């Protein structure tokens, strides 16, 4: 079956949180084999870090290199979007319906087995691929570059995987190799259940309680931490929270609240005053069926370490990097930015939050962002724009917007409501 590129059918945008919801789809186990194409003991390749997410090039059958998010929370390879210039030959394809986290309907997808997968020095045979027939995630709009899909377990299960967030390099080791670790490295048991990696951590809440929680280690979520309140009656909302649109899953929108935790501890490593999201129970009801799961650790925590995933030996190692002591910020402007022309410095306001600083001064979805603090957005990368929105409280923003043919100037101050 040959699939040509198609355009987005839905226009709902993801926020910075790209949830692990794809991982919750009840898909079949993959029987593929992934291996080195040479006798090398390890292969190192660069990746792009966007929104805290690891982007790697992957070829499916005879395709051109496609951009995939490396997601430890997803079992099967999922293609979310193809462009007019893309084409894909799929083997043994048939249509199915799938459903994941979120509030909405099931989706149609193409299920294909017997495919090949290639990365630098890596070959995969008998590869299972799912192609969404609706691009509900709009990853490219949120990432500012073409993003075609998500890949995870098929890589992690076959190799020892080292993600160096500082150098933006990914190293794959043969599973029988011993990986050299720095003295500061701390090793933890990694629990693999239903193709997903879990570890235990401790959260300290505002009431003084310290709880041991079981969390998915999720490189495909760009937030810091998600906690599912219905999973344990001892989990409580922080005293100050804000309502938020947390993202979009296969089943629809995911809403909830964002607050701050006094501290979060992984072994000897403790992070203080970090942001945490609390999805609404309805949005995560499928995840609540997983015994003992309390939420997930996202890449805003993971990027503060060099992370070594060792699925074959069920362990994970963390080595703190220069980001370890950075404060945890979040978007305090009250709006999100999308890029209708991925790869171009062209930015549109989306999803303006009620009662936010931006909303109060009249910013509207659909406004084009022309200037920020006097800087022409044509000269700013998406990462630079987002860094400004994620700045510390008290920073003044001067925006020049275009609404249809009208030029609008607005000023406001970033405020933390949590």
Automatic annotation (TrEMBL):
Signal peptide: 1-23
Keyword Transferase: yes
Gene Ontology terms, MF aspect: aspartic-type endopeptidase activity; transaminase activity
SUPFAM superfamilies, alphabetized: Acid proteases, PDZ domain-like
Residue ranges annotated for the Peptidase A2 domain, each copy included: 66-102
PROSITE patterns xrefs: ASP_PROT_RETROV (PS50175), PDZ (PS50106)
GO biological process: one example: proteolysis
Keywords of this entry: Aminotransferase, Hydrolase, Signal, Transferase
Domain (PDZ): residue spans on this chain: 315-391
Gene3D superfamilies, A to Z: 2.30.42.10, Acid Proteases
Keyword Transferase in annotation: yes
Pfam families assigned: Asp_protease_2 (PF13650), PDZ_6 (PF17820)
Coiled-coil zones: none
InterPro entries assigned to the protein according to its UniProt record, in alphabetical order: PDZ (IPR001478), PDZ_6 (IPR041489), PDZ_sf (IPR036034), Peptidase_A2_cat (IPR001995), Peptidase_aspartic_dom_sf (IPR021109)
Protein name: Aspartate aminotransferase
Species this chain originates from: Pontibacter korlensis
Phylogenetic classification of the source organism: Bacteria, Pseudomonadati, Bacteroidota, Cytophagia, Cytophagales
């Amino acid at each position: 079956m040959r699939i040509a590129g198609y355009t987005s059918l839905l226009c709902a945008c993801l926020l910075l949180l790209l949830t692990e919801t794809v991982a919750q789809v009840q898909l079949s186990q993959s029987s593929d084999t992934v291996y080195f194409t040479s006798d090398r003991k390890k292969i190192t390749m660069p990746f792009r870090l966007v929104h805290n997410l690891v982007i790697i090039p992957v070829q499916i059958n005879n395709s051109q290199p496609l951009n995939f998010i490396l997601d430890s929370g997803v079992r099967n390879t999922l293609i979310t979007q193809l462009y007019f210039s893309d084409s894909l030959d799929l083997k043994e394809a048939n249509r199915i319906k799938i459903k994941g986290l979120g509030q909405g309907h099931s989706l149609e997808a193409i299920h294909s087995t017997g495919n090949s997968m290639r990365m630098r020095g890596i070959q995969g045979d008998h590869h299972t691929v799912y192609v969404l027939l609706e691009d509900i995630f709009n990853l490219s709009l949120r990432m500012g570059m073409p993003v075609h899909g998500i890949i995870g377990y098929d890589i992690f299960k076959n190799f020892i995987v080292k993600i160096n967030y500082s150098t933006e390099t990914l190293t794959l080791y043969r599973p029988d190799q011993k990986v050299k670790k720095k003295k500061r490295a701390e090793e933890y048991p990694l629990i693999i259940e239903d193709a997903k990696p879990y570890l235990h951590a401790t959260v300290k809440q505002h009431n003084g309680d310290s709880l041991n929680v079981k969390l998915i280690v999720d490189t495909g979520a760009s937030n810091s931490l998600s906690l599912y309140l219905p999973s344990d009656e001892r989990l409580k909302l922080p005293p100050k929270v804000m309502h938020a649109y947390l993202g979009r899953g296969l089943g629809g929108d995911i809403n909830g609240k964002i607050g701050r935790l006094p501290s979060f501890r992984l072994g000897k490593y403790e992070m203080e005053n970090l942001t945490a999201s609390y999805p609404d129970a309805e949005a995560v009801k499928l995840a609540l069926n997983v015994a003992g799961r309390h939420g997930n650790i996202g890449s805003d925590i993971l990027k503060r370490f060099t992370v070594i995933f060792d699925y074959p030996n069920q362990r994970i190692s963390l080595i703190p990097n220069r980001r370890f002591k950075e404060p945890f910020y979040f978007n305090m402007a009250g709006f999100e930015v999308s890029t209708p022309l991925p790869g171009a410095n062209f930015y549109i306001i989306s999803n303006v939050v009620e009662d936010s600083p931006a909303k109060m001064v009249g910013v509207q979805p659909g406004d084009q962002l022309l200037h920020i603090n006097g800087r022409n957005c044509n000269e700013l990368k998406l990462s630079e724009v987002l860094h400004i929105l994620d700045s510390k409280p008290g920073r003044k923003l001067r925006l020049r917007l275009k609404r249809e043919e009208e030029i609008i100037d607005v000023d406001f101050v970033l405020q933390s409501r949590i």
